[in-house]
Amino acid sequence: MSSPVSRRNFLQTCALGALALNFRPVLGAAGSRGPAARTLAWDQDWLFGGKFTAAAATPGFDDSGFAPITLPHCAAKLSWQNWQAESWQEVWSYRKHFTLPPDWSGLRVFVVFEGVMVGTTPTINGHELPEHLGTYLPARYELTQWLKSSGDNVLAVAVDSRWRSVPPDGSVKGVKRVDYLEAGGMDRSVRLEAVPSAFIGDLFAKPLDVLKPSRRIEVSGSIDAAAPSGQPLEVRVELKDRGRVVASARQTVAASEAGSNEFTVTLSGLGDLALWDVDSPQLYDVVATLLAGGQPVHDYRVRTGLREARFTVDGFFLNGRRLLLFGLNRHEIYPYVGGAMPARVMRHDARTLKQDFNCNIVRCSHYPQSPAFLDACDELGLMVWEEPPGWGYLGDEDWKQLVIRDVREMILRDRNHPAIVIWGVRVNESPNDPVLYRKTGAVAKSLDGTRPTSGSMTGGSIQHWQEDRHEDVFAMDDYHADGPGIVGILPPLPGIPYMLAESVGQFNYGAGKGFNAFYRRAGDLKLLVKQAVYHAEAHSKAAGYPRLCGVIAWCAFDYASLINAYRGVKTPGVADCFRIPKLGASFYLAQGDPKVRPVIEPSFFWDFGPQSPQGPGKQAAIFSNCDRLEIFVGGKLHASLRPDAEGFPHLKHPPFLVDLSVDGSGFPELRIDGFLQDALVLSRRFSAQPAGDQFQMDADDQELMGDGADATRVVFRVTDQFGADRAFAGGDVSFRISGPGVIVGDNPFGLGDSGGVGAVWVKALPHASGQVVLTATHSHLGSRTVEIAVRPIS
After folding, report:
1. Tell me: the pLDDT tens digits for 558-613?
2. Contact 527, 519 (CB under 8 A)
3. DSSP β-ladder status, 361-364 and 383-386
4. For residue 783, what is the enclosing H or E element?
5. What is the largest CA-CA distance in the chain?
6. How many CB atoms lie within 10 A of CB 587?
7. What span, in angstroms and rounded, lies between the C-alpha atoms of 48 and 184?
């Protein structure tokens, strides 16, 4: 987004001198990113005042009654379920006092909001700036001409979280028109940037011909100048591998006029560089430095990877080898705070998808997601489909212009991420609109011609699509059944690359039931045990079509919704909203390399309660990457099994099926031994005896930074004596915390609705250090304690 502040006003009011090209960089200053540049993470020391009033935007307003907060921040107090959209449908008041650092003299200053739900109107020292509409992409404002070089500056922000005509919102049907709830507030980070009067404003490192010895990177960018340059400008571009320069090039740039000046530099001689791949995600830094009179005045850094990703009529190819897409959709919605989670928590989702669920791709449904999440995908080798905000609905022409803008801003923000292999350029499952989608596709091609375009479609959104193919890849959301209880997968269309952007979802594939089925952990056990099998069937059937690029199934995590939801939580995820795997995840957990991590994951509970008095029953599924399983019931060999390769012929690791209709009156123990060839590599035990049940609690991280935002998940559960989740366990959990941290979550927490598991997050206090001690007490199974160190920020 270009600055709402005109350069004419900037030149009239800022006595910065002729381009400040003689600025001497102060190296080593906090937040420094390079010559003559400063970037400050600006999430600390904000004030939240509740509902907005006009007086709260004035510099002299008494904000002593405002609550100190750290970003990201949710404006409403939420539980993990039963969200009420009315609780955040307001205009909210945020304020920040600040003093400019002394070494920022002569620099232009910008504030960048990474994401605000949903309208942003800043006021700097009493001067109101234009409103930015949109939630998931940055809003950037130049503040320079209104700043005080010394003394207190005040930035007031009115955050409009009401239902607005902004994608994905706008329908007269209100929040029920969108499948996911969007809790209001400043739910992403803010940063303050200071740059010279002429600076590099954008950089795109575009790898070309990466499979040839002539592989190269074309680096294009722009120089933003407040005034014509009186001396030569030069751009030096370097490619670095862990700090070592491996290629460089220079170009002179004529900045004879104020405004944007484009440049393109080619880095060649890269034939020996390693490629980015899902198994070896090699990354490089590209640093462009602006020099004036031979002296560096600014630099701009991006990270990239060299890889070729092609969607063809013969499937998907990464770096020349065919690879079947195997993934899940992800919503960036969390209990208690909506999208307002810090970077550590966002990155954890990427690790879950890649390392636990063995996915090689994720779809960012249905909006651009956190930069921290995308950074983690780059580092882990998790490919990404990214798309603009939206869900089914198309508004008027002004609304559509925002869709076009969002596609543009999404690509400009994220095109340096090697993990992104395809751009979604249409609103999810929307009616076909050839005029709109020709425009969004053209924007994508103009900004990045290296990636194909697509968009998720249903039967109702493909009318006349084949007559006017305005995307490169046909992506279907395929939920059809081939009969009661049978997953159906359509064959690819002829003559065009084809993939599934969604499958399985919340259907149970029962006759006439459709979306009435819920895979809720505390729901119907007969449905819970089928979810993993349905996912396995979908992936196996899709892999049976050699031309199909693969499947991104619906979905990874449960999320807040008012459509086909139970108490405000929609439950199609293979993990719940706390990111705790359900039975449905057992298929994904078992698809990894057994030599790295052997896995045995039953898609059932070993329980003889009211929902399963005869145990798991016939055709009980066990997902494993072992070659052979031996099943022992009550200490006696019950079955020796091989995977069902006939029923699931195209899976790397098909499920094992066994008849476990047994007499549970004596609470027999279940033992499953897993073998690779003839070697025992894993043995798991499961207890039916509830007398041995226990309460467990674990934190994802043992250390946090004391910045007021950093947080880690703490999972608690009722298990059997061997650590397996106990079906439908109840009771209440209460928490006590000491040290420099706070609990984000319900206290007490009732386990009945969550199926015996749950989570809260522990968030570090700002400007703090020390040891956090969290104690959780179950109503009848005792207490557990975790300790988390909080380190001071430097």
Report:
1. 999 999 999 999 999 999 999 999 999 999 999 999 999 999 999 999 999 888 88
2. yes
3. parallel
4. strand 782-791
5. 90
6. 31
7. 13
Tokens coding 591: 């698809």
Tell me the three state secondary structure of residue 99.
coil
Give me the mean pLDDT over the 198-226 stretch. 93
* Of the residues 688, 709, 743, the one at which a domain ends: 688
Per DSSP, the three-state class of 547 is coil
Amino acid at position 145, single letter:
Q
- Is residue 609 in a domain? no
Q: What is the DSSP string of 435-456?
A: HHHHHHHHHHHHH-TTS-EE-E
Are residue 247 and residue 329 in the same domain, yes or no?
A: no
Beta strands in 242-308 (DSSP E): 244-253, 259-267, 284-292, 295-304
Give me the sheet containing 628-633, strands edge to edge.
636-641, 628-633, 670-676, 679-686
CA distance 629 to 638: 11
pLDDT tens-digit readout, 131-155: 999 999 999 999 999 999 889 999 9
Q: If residue 487 lies in a helix (H) or strand (E), which one and from where to where?
A: strand 486-487
List of residues 6+ apart from 105 with CB closer than 8 A: 149
List the structure tokens of 297. Answer: 């005045």
Strand arrangement, sheet containing 198-208: 198-208, 216-225, 259-267
Report residue 206 CA to chain centroid gap: 23
Report whether 788 contacts 699 (CB < 8 A).
Answer: yes
Tokens 């002593």 appear where? Answer: 64
Gyration radius of the chain's alpha carbons? 27
Residue 248 Cα to chain centre, angstroms: 33
Sign of CA pseudo-dihedral 94, 99, 101, 104:
positive
The answer on 265 and 166 residing in a single domain is: no
- Count of beta carbons in the 10 Å neighbourhood of residue 509: 21
Residue 794 pLDDT grade (very low, low, confident, very high; cuts 50, 70, 90): confident
Task: Say yes or no to pLDDT of 616 above 50.
Answer: yes
Domain-embedded: residue 605: no
Helix (H) / strand (E) element for 770: namely strand 770-778
- Taking residues 479-491, what's their average pLDDT? 90
pLDDT at 256: 61
d(CA 272, CA 269): 8
> In whole angstroms, what separates CA 63 from the centre of its chain?
34
Q: What residues contact 384, with CB distance under 8 A and at least 6 apart?
A: 361, 362, 363, 364, 374, 377, 417, 419, 420, 421
> Domain holding 137: CATH number?
2.60.120.260
3-class SS at 387? coil
**125 vs 229: CA distance, rounded Å:** 31
* Pick from 407, 393, 436: nearest CA to 170: 393
Q: Is the distance from CB of 603 to CB of 532 less than 8 angstroms?
A: yes
Boundary (domain end) residue, out of 195, 216, 247: 195
363 pairs with which residues across the strands? 329, 385
Letter for the amino acid at 6?
S
- Residue 629, domain extent: 617-688
Q: CATH number of the domain that 655 lies in?
A: 2.60.40.10
Q: Does residue 249 lie in a domain region?
A: yes
Strands 383-386 and 420-424: parallel
Q: Mapping DSSP to helix (H, G, I), strand (E, B) and coil, where does residue 679 land?
A: strand
Give the pTM: 0.93
Residues 334 and 393 occupy one common structural domain: yes
Query: In the structure encoding, which two tokens stand for residue 85, read together?
Result: 């959209």
Which neighbouring-strand residues pair with 124?
A: 127, 155
Helix and strand numbers (H, E) in the chain are 7, 51
Tell me the CA distances in angstroms from 162 to 169, 180, 208, one per residue in order: 10, 15, 44
**Torsion on CA atoms 557, 563, 567, 572, rounded to nearest 10:** -30
Domain annotation covers residue 601: no
**How far is the C-alpha of 202 from the C-alpha of 208, rounded, in Å?**
19
How many separate domains does the chain show? 5
